[in-house]
Design brief:
Number of strands: 17
Strand content: 15-25%
Pfam families: UvrD_C, Zn_ribbon_Top1
CATH superfamily of the largest domain: P-loop containing nucleotide triphosphate hydrolases
Order of helices and strands: HHHEHEEHEEEEHEHHEHEEEEEEEE
Protein name: DNA helicase-4
Radius of gyration: 23 Å
InterPro entries: DNA_helicase_UvrD-like_C, DNA_helicase_UvrD/REP, P-loop_NTPase, Topo_IA_Znf
Number of helices: 9
Keywords: ATP-binding, Helicase, Hydrolase, Nucleotide-binding
CATH class of the largest domain: Alpha Beta
CATH topology of the largest domain: Rossmann fold
CATH architecture of the largest domain: 3-Layer(aba) Sandwich
Number of domains: 3
Oligomer: single chain
GO molecular function, one term: DNA binding
Amino acid sequence: MEIRNLSGARLICVGDDWQSIYGFAGSDISLFSNFGKYVGKYEQLLIEQTYRNSQPLIDITSKFIQKNKRQISKFPKSKKEPLEAPVKFVQYNDGEIADAFINEIGLLVSKYGNKSILVLGRHGFDIHDLIALTPKSRVKYFESTGKLEVKGFEEIDINYLTVHRSKGTEADNVIVLKLSNHLLGFPNKMTDDPLLSLLLSDNEEYRFAEERRLFYVALTRTKNEVVLLTPSEASLFVEELLKDNNYLLTTTDGAVNATGCPYCKTGKLVIRQHTANGSQFLGCSHYPSCNQTFKNVEILADSILCPGCESGFMVKRSGRFGDFLGCTNYPGCTNTIKLK
């Protein structure tokens, strides 16, 4: 403010409040939320075009980060080819993390070829659960360089970083480790130093606000997919993403499927509620990019895609000749299936 008054200079500040993750070092999020307080009159310009992530991932992560209403509202857009499932949730049992990790490495290589893989942890020690310090270990970690060497995939560029250190980096695909619901899980539930909060001008009240931003950073390092490895006691953030997006959860025992949106082909149908009358309906997880809705919530229990229009679902109806299945797009689609 004083520099501007003395020199008449124009000041341009660039930053992203969604990635403000260094509060423990004194970084103050209020520099974004109360910018005018520090510089006076200003104009805010949003950079909303992104080139790293596909739109389906952007939709998921944007909704996640903006649950904290103090984050600046933005609507990032991408011109990349959309991926059907940019986030994959993989749950493993105790002692199975190495098996799950190596299996996901193999799946990524088979899908994308020998592309780079970045492995992320909330803490530096999260990697210890993955590596076994024995001569027969299938995963070797070189701490000085961050390099991971996986047996059978030695030619793949695989590196480990903490999420804090990963800010500003990217990789073709990302795997996030140890997404557990523990004190030192993700989010880390240890309270901040009370002395530090005295130094900050605006102490945040939103629960795990900075941890949420940190998780957002982890989700958005990938050019393609991000795989979330979670133990049986899943992270609060993982549970939230699963609930909000009705996503696919893969386990060592099989898979729980979610119903895909037949319009955008990349979103999942989730139950929403009308604010006016409280009635439930199905909406696409990629709203507002996709605003398709269905009033038949029972679709989730038995989703039969209409073979006629391929954009509606077959639901049970009754007529003068008895019960039948009709398309949710009626009268636009008159396809029916007789019930015996």
